[in-house]
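INFO  loader      accepted 1 record
INFO  loader      residues=337
INFO  predictor   begin
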Amino acid sequence: MNTLRTAMLLAAMTALFMGVGFLIGGTGGMMIALLIAAGTNLFSYWNADKMVLSMNRAVEVDEKNAPEYYAIVQALAQRAGLPMPKTYLIDNPQPNAFATGRNPENAAVAASTGLLQRLSHEEVAAVMAHELAHVQHRDTLTMTVVATLAGAISMLGNFAFFFGGSRDNNNPFGFVGVLVAMLVAPFAAMIVQMAVSRTREYEADRRGAEIVGNPLWLASALDKIARSAERIPNPDAERNPAMAHLFIINPLSGERMDNLFSTHPNTDNRIAALQAMARGGASQAAPRQAPTPRQADEQPSAGPWGKQAEQEQPAEPARPKSNPWGRNPTGPKGPWS
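INFO  predictor   done
INFO  writer      dumping tokens
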């Protein structure tokens, strides 16, 4: 089913791309747009993940320079039955994360340093479980390719002002066609992005909660990320708004028109769905509600790491820390030490 949906979405984006080409340059412009769309699709399949990671200046990490973060992703991947994805960190104070890659065997997950600094261990695990759910559902290819095509369509719409409307081309609509290409095409691309993201976020929330074992951890994480994203800008995302729907929470500040129609479902609705999932699971499996991250810090819990989490408990009272990772969120030898 996911393969069929991916094919339909790619066909829709390609048709939109060709329509913009027709509005700008008539039949010749449509054929050129078809060739560009085909090349973009091919490029996106093999290289879009690298492009997205590069745009966000993500740095690959491992168990040596980001031990706790890497261990979380590794444990969750094992629980989900997935190959270990490449793990990246983004030096950005806004808490956020995304997944990319053409398939589970070539997937990558990325989290910001702000996510590791501002969220608890359990909340970070819930966020990464959500991203692994996207990998498991094979959403990452579709979302990344759509982001690439949406950016290309927006760029083509901008170019329409300079290259369209001339009497020397075969544009049957003249300057009116150019205006439509400039205004309607980026809007239509954004609508497609909304359809892609909104239908998949709820499923990733549900599956991510199953992987991590506690829906309330993800609910708490979404609340913290959403509130922080309103106050902390993400310059890389602002420069590349077509990539916004890849993140777990919309990273755009809304200062420009980019946030007029959000590519993400309402955060309160997502939290309510997770809370309902927690209540349903608690009534079926246990007489008490699953602990929130704050409660989990106050009482022992095996969590997704089983006995290992219990063995890591210090023998003496733990000293207060600025965040769950100590002084350096990437570990003792992180890339930003």
